[in-house]
Design a protein that fits this description.
50% helix; TIM Barrel; globular
Protein backbone atom coordinates (compact mmCIF):
# COMPACT_ATOMS: atom_id res chain seq x y z
CA UNK A 1 0.00 0.00 0.00
CA UNK A 2 1.31 3.44 -0.88
CA UNK A 3 0.40 6.74 0.68
CA UNK A 4 1.13 8.91 -2.34
CA UNK A 5 -2.46 10.16 -2.32
CA UNK A 6 -1.57 12.35 0.65
CA UNK A 7 1.31 14.20 -1.01
CA UNK A 8 0.98 17.92 -1.73
CA UNK A 9 0.39 21.36 -0.26
CA UNK A 10 -1.77 21.64 2.87
CA UNK A 11 -2.89 24.72 4.74
CA UNK A 12 -2.66 24.47 8.49
CA UNK A 13 -6.24 25.62 8.91
CA UNK A 14 -6.91 28.73 10.96
CA UNK A 15 -9.99 28.93 13.18
CA UNK A 16 -12.50 31.78 13.23
CA UNK A 17 -13.30 32.69 16.83
CA UNK A 18 -15.92 35.09 18.17
CA UNK A 19 -14.87 37.76 20.66
CA UNK A 20 -16.39 35.75 23.52
CA UNK A 21 -14.21 32.74 22.66
CA UNK A 22 -16.89 30.69 20.92
CA UNK A 23 -16.48 29.21 17.47
CA UNK A 24 -17.61 31.27 14.47
CA UNK A 25 -18.90 28.57 12.16
CA UNK A 26 -19.69 30.85 9.22
CA UNK A 27 -16.22 32.38 9.43
CA UNK A 28 -14.57 28.97 9.60
CA UNK A 29 -16.42 27.88 6.49
CA UNK A 30 -15.22 31.04 4.72
CA UNK A 31 -11.59 30.27 5.64
CA UNK A 32 -12.00 26.74 4.29
CA UNK A 33 -13.53 27.95 1.04
CA UNK A 34 -10.79 30.57 0.61
CA UNK A 35 -8.17 27.86 0.96
CA UNK A 36 -9.84 25.57 -1.57
CA UNK A 37 -11.15 28.07 -4.09
CA UNK A 38 -8.43 30.75 -4.06
CA UNK A 39 -5.31 29.16 -2.58
CA UNK A 40 -5.92 25.93 -4.54
CA UNK A 41 -4.44 23.76 -1.80
CA UNK A 42 -4.39 19.95 -1.94
CA UNK A 43 -5.59 19.52 1.60
CA UNK A 44 -6.23 20.93 5.05
CA UNK A 45 -4.40 20.11 8.27
CA UNK A 46 -7.16 20.60 10.83
CA UNK A 47 -6.61 21.10 14.56
CA UNK A 48 -2.97 22.12 14.60
CA UNK A 49 -1.15 24.98 16.27
CA UNK A 50 -2.43 27.43 13.66
CA UNK A 51 -5.99 26.44 14.49
CA UNK A 52 -5.43 27.36 18.16
CA UNK A 53 -6.19 23.74 18.98
CA UNK A 54 -4.40 23.71 22.32
CA UNK A 55 -6.65 26.51 23.59
CA UNK A 56 -9.84 24.49 23.01
CA UNK A 57 -11.85 21.84 24.81
CA UNK A 58 -12.73 18.51 23.23
CA UNK A 59 -16.19 19.54 22.07
CA UNK A 60 -14.86 22.55 20.17
CA UNK A 61 -12.17 20.44 18.52
CA UNK A 62 -14.81 17.95 17.39
CA UNK A 63 -17.04 20.74 16.11
CA UNK A 64 -14.20 22.03 13.92
CA UNK A 65 -13.60 18.52 12.58
CA UNK A 66 -17.33 18.29 11.81
CA UNK A 67 -17.51 21.63 10.01
CA UNK A 68 -14.35 21.05 7.99
CA UNK A 69 -15.54 17.67 6.75
CA UNK A 70 -19.00 18.98 5.99
CA UNK A 71 -17.64 21.95 4.02
CA UNK A 72 -14.92 20.02 2.20
CA UNK A 73 -16.66 16.77 1.44
CA UNK A 74 -14.17 15.01 -0.82
CA UNK A 75 -12.83 18.11 -2.59
CA UNK A 76 -9.42 18.00 -0.89
CA UNK A 77 -7.62 15.75 1.59
CA UNK A 78 -8.17 16.20 5.30
CA UNK A 79 -5.71 15.44 8.09
CA UNK A 80 -6.92 15.76 11.68
CA UNK A 81 -4.35 16.74 14.31
CA UNK A 82 -5.46 14.93 17.46
CA UNK A 83 -2.38 15.02 19.72
CA UNK A 84 -1.85 16.86 22.96
CA UNK A 85 -1.17 16.35 26.63
CA UNK A 86 -4.09 13.95 27.22
CA UNK A 87 -3.67 10.71 25.29
CA UNK A 88 -7.21 9.59 26.14
CA UNK A 89 -8.61 12.70 24.48
CA UNK A 90 -6.26 12.02 21.54
CA UNK A 91 -7.65 8.50 21.19
CA UNK A 92 -11.20 9.83 21.30
CA UNK A 93 -10.46 12.49 18.68
CA UNK A 94 -8.63 9.99 16.47
CA UNK A 95 -11.61 7.69 16.39
CA UNK A 96 -13.98 10.62 15.91
CA UNK A 97 -12.09 12.04 12.91
CA UNK A 98 -11.72 8.58 11.41
CA UNK A 99 -15.45 7.99 11.66
CA UNK A 100 -16.02 11.31 9.89
CA UNK A 101 -13.92 10.10 6.99
CA UNK A 102 -10.67 12.02 7.47
CA UNK A 103 -7.92 10.77 5.17
CA UNK A 104 -5.35 10.63 7.95
CA UNK A 105 -4.69 11.75 11.49
CA UNK A 106 -1.67 13.43 12.99
CA UNK A 107 -0.43 13.80 16.56
CA UNK A 108 2.04 16.21 18.08
CA UNK A 109 4.64 14.64 20.36
CA UNK A 110 3.41 14.67 23.97
CA UNK A 111 4.81 17.73 25.72
CA UNK A 112 5.13 19.66 29.01
CA UNK A 113 6.39 16.67 30.99
CA UNK A 114 9.78 15.33 29.94
CA UNK A 115 8.79 11.94 28.57
CA UNK A 116 11.17 9.12 27.77
CA UNK A 117 11.24 7.80 24.23
CA UNK A 118 9.44 4.65 25.40
CA UNK A 119 6.64 6.80 26.81
CA UNK A 120 6.40 8.73 23.51
CA UNK A 121 6.32 5.46 21.58
CA UNK A 122 3.53 4.12 23.80
CA UNK A 123 1.56 7.35 23.29
CA UNK A 124 1.64 6.86 19.51
CA UNK A 125 0.85 3.16 19.84
CA UNK A 126 -2.23 3.96 21.90
CA UNK A 127 -3.47 6.49 19.34
CA UNK A 128 -3.08 4.24 16.29
CA UNK A 129 -4.64 1.34 18.20
CA UNK A 130 -7.73 3.47 18.86
CA UNK A 131 -8.72 3.82 15.20
CA UNK A 132 -8.20 2.40 11.75
CA UNK A 133 -6.38 5.28 10.11
CA UNK A 134 -2.97 6.47 8.97
CA UNK A 135 -0.96 8.72 11.28
CA UNK A 136 1.63 11.43 10.73
CA UNK A 137 3.91 12.30 13.63
CA UNK A 138 3.93 16.06 14.25
CA UNK A 139 7.46 17.00 15.29
CA UNK A 140 7.88 20.63 16.36
CA UNK A 141 10.76 20.76 18.87
CA UNK A 142 10.75 24.55 19.24
CA UNK A 143 7.29 24.38 20.83
CA UNK A 144 7.33 20.96 22.52
CA UNK A 145 10.96 20.65 23.58
CA UNK A 146 10.92 17.09 22.21
CA UNK A 147 13.75 16.17 19.85
CA UNK A 148 13.58 12.87 17.95
CA UNK A 149 16.66 11.45 16.26
CA UNK A 150 16.78 9.29 13.14
CA UNK A 151 16.97 6.05 15.09
CA UNK A 152 13.91 6.97 17.14
CA UNK A 153 11.99 8.01 14.03
CA UNK A 154 12.80 4.66 12.44
CA UNK A 155 11.50 2.90 15.56
CA UNK A 156 8.25 4.90 15.45
CA UNK A 157 7.79 4.17 11.75
CA UNK A 158 7.76 0.45 12.58
CA UNK A 159 4.41 0.97 14.31
CA UNK A 160 1.62 -0.12 12.01
CA UNK A 161 -0.18 2.81 10.33
CA UNK A 162 2.44 5.43 11.25
CA UNK A 163 3.30 6.58 7.75
CA UNK A 164 5.35 9.73 8.11
CA UNK A 165 6.05 13.02 9.83
CA UNK A 166 5.24 16.70 9.69
CA UNK A 167 8.80 17.93 10.12
CA UNK A 168 8.71 21.42 11.66
CA UNK A 169 12.36 21.96 12.51
CA UNK A 170 15.24 23.95 10.99
CA UNK A 171 17.64 20.98 11.25
CA UNK A 172 18.30 20.14 7.61
CA UNK A 173 21.06 17.70 8.48
CA UNK A 174 18.45 15.70 10.40
CA UNK A 175 15.99 16.06 7.51
CA UNK A 176 18.54 14.81 4.99
CA UNK A 177 19.55 11.89 7.21
CA UNK A 178 15.90 11.02 7.80
CA UNK A 179 15.06 11.12 4.09
CA UNK A 180 18.01 8.85 3.28
CA UNK A 181 17.25 6.43 6.11
CA UNK A 182 13.49 6.30 5.46
CA UNK A 183 12.93 6.69 1.69
CA UNK A 184 9.42 5.24 1.77
CA UNK A 185 7.82 7.32 4.54
CA UNK A 186 6.00 10.60 3.93
CA UNK A 187 7.81 13.73 5.06
CA UNK A 188 6.01 17.08 5.09
CA UNK A 189 7.86 20.35 5.57
CA UNK A 190 6.41 22.45 8.38
CA UNK A 191 8.44 25.66 8.12
CA UNK A 192 7.00 27.83 5.34
CA UNK A 193 10.09 30.04 5.19
CA UNK A 194 12.28 26.99 4.51
CA UNK A 195 10.13 25.30 1.89
CA UNK A 196 12.70 25.45 -0.92
CA UNK A 197 15.55 23.70 0.95
CA UNK A 198 13.05 21.19 2.30
CA UNK A 199 11.90 20.30 -1.21
CA UNK A 200 15.52 20.01 -2.36
CA UNK A 201 16.00 17.54 0.49
CA UNK A 202 13.14 15.40 -0.78
CA UNK A 203 10.00 16.20 1.19
CA UNK A 204 6.69 14.92 -0.20
CA UNK A 205 4.66 18.00 0.61
CA UNK A 206 4.28 20.91 2.99
CA UNK A 207 1.88 21.99 5.73
CA UNK A 208 1.89 25.68 6.58
CA UNK A 209 -0.02 28.41 8.35
CA UNK A 210 0.88 31.14 5.83
CA UNK A 211 -0.54 28.97 3.06
CA UNK A 212 -3.95 30.30 4.21
CA UNK A 213 -2.97 33.54 2.44
CA UNK A 214 0.02 32.50 0.30
CA UNK A 215 -0.84 28.99 -0.84
CA UNK A 216 -0.35 29.71 -4.53
CA UNK A 217 3.27 30.75 -4.02
CA UNK A 218 3.89 27.72 -1.81
CA UNK A 219 2.79 25.49 -4.65
CA UNK A 220 4.90 27.48 -7.09
CA UNK A 221 8.02 26.96 -4.96
CA UNK A 222 7.23 23.29 -4.54
CA UNK A 223 6.60 22.63 -8.22
CA UNK A 224 9.58 24.66 -9.44
CA UNK A 225 11.95 22.95 -7.04
CA UNK A 226 10.63 19.51 -7.98
CA UNK A 227 11.28 20.44 -11.63
CA UNK A 228 14.84 21.48 -10.71
CA UNK A 229 14.14 25.12 -11.58
CA UNK A 230 16.01 26.26 -8.51
CA UNK A 231 16.69 29.88 -9.47
CA UNK A 232 13.01 30.52 -10.18
CA UNK A 233 12.04 28.75 -6.98
CA UNK A 234 14.56 30.83 -5.01
CA UNK A 235 13.07 34.04 -6.37
CA UNK A 236 9.60 33.03 -5.22
CA UNK A 237 10.98 31.91 -1.84
CA UNK A 238 12.60 35.35 -1.44
CA UNK A 239 9.27 37.03 -2.16
CA UNK A 240 7.50 34.63 0.18
CA UNK A 241 10.00 35.27 2.95
CA UNK A 242 9.57 39.03 2.60
CA UNK A 243 5.90 38.38 3.34
CA UNK A 244 6.60 35.92 6.16
CA UNK A 245 9.13 38.27 7.78
CA UNK A 246 6.59 41.09 7.80
CA UNK A 247 3.88 38.81 9.20
CA UNK A 248 6.13 37.53 11.98
CA UNK A 249 7.22 41.03 12.95
CA UNK A 250 3.57 42.06 13.22
CA UNK A 251 2.38 38.93 15.09
CA UNK A 252 1.79 35.66 13.24
CA UNK A 253 -1.76 34.56 14.00
CA UNK A 254 -3.38 38.00 14.46
CA UNK A 255 -1.83 39.17 11.18
CA UNK A 256 -2.92 36.12 9.21
CA UNK A 257 -6.47 36.73 10.37
CA UNK A 258 -6.31 40.41 9.43
CA UNK A 259 -4.99 39.51 5.97
CA UNK A 260 -7.88 37.10 5.51
CA UNK A 261 -10.31 39.84 6.53
CA UNK A 262 -8.84 42.04 3.79
CA UNK A 263 -9.73 39.21 1.40
CA UNK A 264 -13.33 39.39 2.61
CA UNK A 265 -13.04 36.39 4.92
CA UNK A 266 -14.45 36.63 8.46
CA UNK A 267 -11.45 35.17 10.27
CA UNK A 268 -12.61 36.49 13.63
CA UNK A 269 -10.49 36.93 16.73
CA UNK A 270 -7.87 34.85 18.51
CA UNK A 271 -8.91 32.74 21.47
CA UNK A 272 -7.69 33.95 24.84
CA UNK A 273 -5.12 34.07 26.24
CA UNK A 274 -3.83 34.69 22.69
CA UNK A 275 -4.33 38.37 21.92
CA UNK A 276 -6.11 39.56 18.79
CA UNK A 277 -4.71 42.33 16.59
CA UNK A 278 -4.59 45.81 18.11
CA UNK A 279 -5.02 48.99 16.08
CA UNK A 280 -1.36 49.16 15.12
CA UNK A 281 -1.29 45.55 13.96
CA UNK A 282 -4.47 46.07 11.93
CA UNK A 283 -2.92 49.05 10.14
CA UNK A 284 0.35 47.20 9.58
CA UNK A 285 -1.59 44.28 8.11
CA UNK A 286 -3.14 46.64 5.57
CA UNK A 287 0.33 47.73 4.50
CA UNK A 288 1.51 44.14 4.27
CA UNK A 289 -1.53 43.23 2.19
CA UNK A 290 -1.05 46.15 -0.19
CA UNK A 291 2.71 45.77 -0.65
CA UNK A 292 3.31 42.04 -0.40
CA UNK A 293 0.09 40.23 -1.26
CA UNK A 294 -1.69 42.32 -3.88
Amino acid sequence: MTNSDLKGIYSALLSSINEDGSLNEAGLRQIIRHNIDKMKIDGLYVGGSSGENFLMDTDMKKKIFDIAKDEVGNQVKLIAQVGGTNVYESMDLAQYATNLGYDAISAVTPFYYQYSFEEIKEYYQMIVDSCDNRLLIYSVPSLTGVNINVGDFKELFKIKNIIGVKFTAPDFFLLERLRKACPDVLIFSGFDEMLLPAVVNGVDGAIGSTFNVNGKNARKIFDLAKSNKIEEARKTQHETNDLIEAILENGLYPTLKELLKLEGVNAGFNRRPMASADHSQVENAKTIYKNLLK
